[in-house]
Write a structure and sequence with these properties.
The complex is a heterodimer of chains A (about 190) and B (about 240). Chain A is mostly helical. Chain A has helices at about 5-15, 15-40, 40-60, 70-95, 125-135, 140-150, 155-160, 165-190. Chain B has one domain (about 40-235). Classes of the chains: A mainly alpha (about 190), B mainly alpha (about 240).
Chain lengths: ~190, ~240
Amino acid sequence: MGAEETELMAQYCDGDGAAFRRLYARVAPRLLNYLMRMTRDRASAEDLLQHTFLKIHRAHRAYVAGADPVPWVYAIAHRTFLDEARRAKRAKVRVAATADSLPEVRAHVTGKPEAQVDEPANPELTRAALSALDTLPPNQREALVLTKLNGKTIAEAAIIAGTTPGAMKLRAHRAYVALRKLLGEQKKAA
Amino acid sequence: MISEERLDASLRELGEADIPVPDVGDELANELEQMHSARPRSPGRELLLLALVSLMYVGTLLGALRFRPDLTALPRLWLITYVAAWGLSFLALAYVVLVPAKGRIIPNWRLGLLLGLGAEVGFIVAGLFLARSVPGVSHVYPATIEDLAAHGYHCLTLGVITALVPAALGVVFLRGAVPVGDRSAAAALGAAGGCLGGMMLHLHCPISGYLHLGLIHGGVVILASLLTALIAPRFLSP
């Protein structure tokens, strides 16, 4: 992974818009998956995906010839998610003040908003893992999503999240242990 | 407890879940239609350009403001070593922040930040303990806060003005390249500029008191670093 993205990025920087679309087709599914696990909301994840690619396009002059663009793309997505999370946190008070005018969110039978519930196509454990993943703190969840779901190495995940490999390893380990514990408890309760 | 193999398999399945991706948005599609080719960054060339422009700028400033009057009377080894330390710190910081590892786009901003902090502490300590002066030619004022403030303002201003050009040029080169660690990268760029400002002051300012050398000339690195860290991140992050 990486060589084809590098080639596509070079073609895109040469002014080939079709190469950008091919790059989008290759990277966007993984990025959307990452953003969905982070935001726990499909609509927000899709918005962030568009923001991320808009930023990539506006900053494509920063690309270094021959470099793998994927960690940079993920880092932009990570930053976009963090900025949006901060903005949403600040806007909470304003939202509460105008809550009456907001449309009601349709709920799934589980009690979660419909947009947060994946179709039950996966096996039981995968579904349980998904809901357990949602309960982890954001930085631990991100560590697990990057290393276990998206297949990044610890070093790559550290670059994306702007932390040290040691800290990333610790976060991923803690998240993994917490997830196993949660799933074990759920199994016992069932 | 669930086995690691089973959990890993489920997590992999989650990661490989086939999620339909929306099309490229209208705003982006419009911008793509109007795009032109853009030459990717060439970090080595940018470093060379930054070094050349910065040194020419310092040369021009020194030409306009004159060298310190005690320059030829000062211990030669001390003078050269000190100037080399300023210059090498500037180059090392600029290299770390501008030139990412092979195959990467994001520079090693963490190392840049650490080097910047090292330069800040190092030049303050060096100024406090390694000050030299030539009796009758160098200006040495009493070691008081009042004297320090009275004679420090000009040097701080001049040092920051000198730091401005390399820091701004570095920001232009790195625009959009640092989605994470942008403040640290900016601080390191500012520290690089501050080192050049320190070098300029070392060759221009005749005040040789240890407090002035340590806190004012060394302080230029901190001030330039802080200012750049405050202003530049919005340009470095895409």
